[in-house]
Amino acid sequence: MAGLRNVLLVEDDAMIRDMYRLALADSQYVVEVADSAEETYAKLQTFRPDCIFLDIMLPGSSGLEILNELRTNPKHGCLSTKIIILTNLAQRNVADNAMSHGADGYIIKADILPKDLPRVVQSLEEE
Amino acid sequence: MGEEHNTSEQEGFISRILHLFRPKIATKIFIYFLIIALVPLMTVSYVLVVAANDQLLKSASKNQQTLAHDLARRVDNYLAKSINLLAFEGRLYAANNFKTEEQLIQSLKTLFTQNAALQQVLMLTNDGVQRILTLQEDGEIKVEILSQNEQTGTAQYTEAIAFMVGKPYFISPGRDKDNIPRLTLGIPILKKYAPPNDDLFVSQKGETVNDLHGAILGYYDISSLWESVLSETAGEKSYAYIVDNSGFLITHPDQKFLFSHAEIKDTEAVRQFLNGDLSTKQTISEKNEEVISTPFKTQTNWAVIVQEPVSSIYASVNSYIQMSTTVGIVAVILSVLAGLFFSRQLIRPIKQLSIGAKRLGRGEFDQQINVKTRDELQELANTFNRMGMSIKKLISDLQTNNLRLMVEQAKLNNIISSVSDGIIALNAKGEIVSANPPAAKLVGTEPAMLEGKLLSDVFAWEHDEQRFTPDLKTVGIHRHTDLVLKRGSQVAYLDIMVAVLENQTGNVASIITIHDQTESRELSFMKLDFVAIAAHELRTPLTVVRGYLDILNSSAASKLNLFQLENLQKAIVGANQLRELINKLLNIARIERGDMEIFIEKLNLSKLVSENVEQHQPVAVQKEQKLSFNAGTAKDIYVPADTASIVEVLNNLIGNALKYTPKGGEIKVTLTATNNYARVEVKDNGPGVPNDMRDRLFTKFYRAERSLISGSRGTGLGLFISKTIIELQNGTIGIEPDQGHGSVFYFTLPIYDPARDDEQIAKNTSGGIRGWFKKRPTS
Questions:
Q1: pLDDT band at B702 (very low <50, low <70, confident <90, very high)
Q2: Which of A68, B187, B426, B676 could form a disulfide with B510 if both were Cys (CB 3.0 to 4.6 A apart)?
Q3: pLDDT tens-digit profile of B57-70?
């Protein structure tokens, strides 16, 4: 339980972002948010997350591009950070694409509830 | 080939000349007439003149030869006669015929009567006496007799005698002090004469001084020799003169010339003779005239030169030339007149045609060209008139078509300018003929500004960071995706379709359709389709609704009264239903397009069904229904299947059973397995499905009547989706025949077979559980 405390939530939709932050904060996670690739990279300079929830449909660079950047560019310090895609895109090929680019999980937002997020983080810790 | 080349070169030359002068047709015809009239005339005239000249020359030559021969004979006779007269006196003297000196003088005097030209006779004898008889002007003959003692002529005598040695006679032409021609003839007086013979010159040679008795010399005035000897036979136009073998002029018909010219050896005709050439020649006469000249040699080695002026010989030819010239001029005049007449005749209809053509050019298609020549020209004029009518009709058709085209064009323009894709029309050179606003907007300008510009100048497309230029030559439709068009800091991502068209005349034009993919580039990058986007867009607000409802439910439930709580629950149920609906619609859309995604894995079916039944227990409890699951001996049954989709089928079948079975009903879920198939059965004791509806139960948007009776709601999509899912995974789905109490739905799936299924399972990289996927263990 001691491992994954810091969570970065990358989500451009303010309502959804607040919703998940609320749920995660309720479970005692330290949550930082970003709404774009640029803000994500900026946040990562000062904040070291244990787990990143990453939306795909973002303005500018997509979540998949961010994923690729984080997994290939060591300067962000996220080569082995847990990254979970959190999106409403339910295409299996998109999910496969994300997995093959190094995502640890793929969540369809409409199919889960905010309170499920802490459980997801927990399941990652158990591995 | 070479000849053709030559011919064409000649034609080229002729046409250049013609081009230089630009003669009108009339002039050409005129020239042709002249040529036709003159060429044969000239040719015949030329040939005749040449032939006549030749003939005349031959005949003149022959005449001259004859004449010269005749004249020479005459000269010879004259000289022979004169010499023989002298010689006769010599013989008489030698034969001692003269008894006295008186008799001798008397005999000598007769010489003057026999030859009018004789001026003086000189007789020397070896007794030293010299007799000089001189014809005086009064006709008297003066006689001088000089004895040896008193005469001074001893030396003269000796000289003459010495001169005579070895000669039968001598002839010496000369001139007196007045330059009048004189002829000196001399004969030797021999001691002994041979008998006379028939030779023309009978005189005999004195071989030595001792053979000689003396000599007789005669001096002749031959100034009138020509008249007396030659004139009567000289031709009308020709004449003759005589020179000796040193070019000394002896006689000449022209006395003036004769007296003024003693030696003419430089004259060409004379030189010819002196060179030994006796043929007839055209040459330059002693008077510097062009003449035909024939020399003939006399026995005294003189030359009789007969000559006739060339002009006189050719006089007849000249008259012929004059005549043919006259005829030629007449022919030319006639040709000119005929040429003018015919060319005008020929030109008039052509002119009319020309005027007609000009009018046609101005657009007067109605005019009629009136040519009545009853030949090809009339035919041409008629064709012309018909052509005018055809053109008129064509133009009217064209105008109609043009109008129609303009309407079509306007329509097309409206369409083009209203579509959101960029459209550019290009000509064969790659220049923009027209462009619509979206196309212009891509490069930040107006359509009008693009017209006439080269496509490549305006649209600097890149593909894979390389400059990209579409092929505008190959006819067909070419598609290019992922093109990048940079404008300042803006980047547009484009798909283009290039349609290269070829019209009937072989001209190539292109139409480029540009689809701006910039906005949906992210989606295309992820290979998303419309349904996925729609689903995504619907899900986002749904996520918010469901999320906040749940937060409300878990955090604020204790603060709500029962009524509020019930309402909250209803909202949550509705949101869930919405979620199911969206998923179903998405699935339907995928099925419709034939790309339902199935990710086969090795699935523990008994475990899955068991879990699913448990998840439905809350609903069953709520409806006071009894929901049970019985796997019997079929524990840990594995099937190759897509977990999420099988969950959906179970949700559907169990959900339906719960939904359509009245309160207090019973739903039994059982799992059985044979060697090949696993079978899941959902049995209820509800109202059942009427037989006539069973066939349509698994079709899209079908809902059994009972649902209306029971008031349940549903889309009727579930069974259709389930059928598709199961059949995609090589299973069967259906409803058992009506037993009169409830209904039995079932589905089967093939049992997992490693040999058959592992390969397909290996392709699946992400394991799925409802709601989220986790990375599969790599082992």
A1: low
A2: B426
A3: 788 788 888 888 88
How many interface pairs between A and B have CB atoms less than 8 angstroms apart? 114
pLDDT (tens digit per residue) in A98-127: 888 889 888 988 888 888 888 888 888 766
**Sole residue written with tokens 């005049």:** B333
What is the pTM assigned to this prediction? Answer: 0.40
Mean pLDDT of B164-188: 79
Shortest distance between the Cα of B563 and any Cα of chain A, in A, equals 23
Does the CB of B544 have a partner CB in chain A at under 8 Å?
yes
In this complex, is the C-beta atom of B763 within 8 Å of any C-beta atom belonging to chain A?
no
Q: Give the range among B199-213, B344-358, B492-506 with minimum mean pLDDT.
A: B199-213
Q: What residue has token string 């795909």?
A: A56
**Could you read off the pLDDT of B704-751 as tens digits, one per residue?**
444 444 444 455 678 888 988 898 889 999 988 877 788 899 999 999
The reply to whether residue A92 touches residue B599, judged by beta carbons under 8 angstroms, is: yes
Kindly report the three-state secondary structure assignment for every residue of B115-126. CCCEEEEEEEEC
Average pLDDT value for chain B: 79
B535 CB neighbour count, 10 Å cutoff: 25
Most confident segment among A3-12, B262-271, B388-397, B620-629: B620-629
B766 exposure class (CB count in 10 Å sphere: 0-12, 13-18, 19+): buried
Cβ contact B546–A16 (<8 Å)? no
By C-alpha distance, the chain A residue nearest B590 is A91
What DSSP state is assigned to residue B110?
A: H
> Measured between beta carbons, which residues in chain A are less than 8 angstroms from residue B774?
104-106, 123
Q: Which of A22, A116, A62 is nearest to B769 (CA)?
A: A116
- So what's the ipTM on this one? 0.88
Q: Which of B29, B32, B28, B34 is nearest to B331 (CA)?
A: B34
Query: Contact B550/A92, CB-based, under 8 Å?
Result: no
Using a CB-CB distance cutoff of 8 angstroms, which residues of chain B are in contact with residue A92? 597, 599, 766, 768
Surface-to-core class of residue B711, CB atoms within 10 Å of its CB (0-12 exposed, 13-18 middle, 19+ buried): exposed
- Residues of A within 8 A of B542 (CB-CB) are 110
Rounding to the nearest 10 degrees, give the CA dihedral for residues B40, B41, B44, B45. Answer: -150
Put the strands of the sheet holding B303-309 in their side by side order.
B249-251, B239-243, B303-309, B290-297, B281-284
Closest residue on chain A to B579 (Cα): A110
Q: What is the DSSP string of B737-757?
A: PP-SSS-EEEEEEEPP-HHHH
Interface touch B522/A115, C-beta < 8 Å: no
- Average of per-residue pLDDT across B578-606: 80
- Judged against a pLDDT cut of 90, whether residue A30 lies above it is answered with yes
Distances in Å between the alpha carbon of B730 and those of B224, B587, B608, B677, B748? Answer: 158, 18, 18, 10, 9
Which residues of B are less than 8 Å from A95 in CB distance? 766, 768, 773
The pLDDT value recorded for residue B771 is: 44
What does the alpha-carbon distance between residue B439 and residue B644 come to, in Å, rounded to a whole number? Answer: 45
Are B771 and A107 an interchain contact pair (Cβ–Cβ within 8 Å)?
A: yes
pLDDT in the model for residue B4: 44
Bridge-based pairing of strands A51-54 and A6-10 is parallel
Query: How much is the average pLDDT of B241-248?
Result: 84
Contact A57 B766 (CB under 8 A): no
Pick among B526, B595, B642, B769 to test the A interface (most A CBs inside 10 A): B526
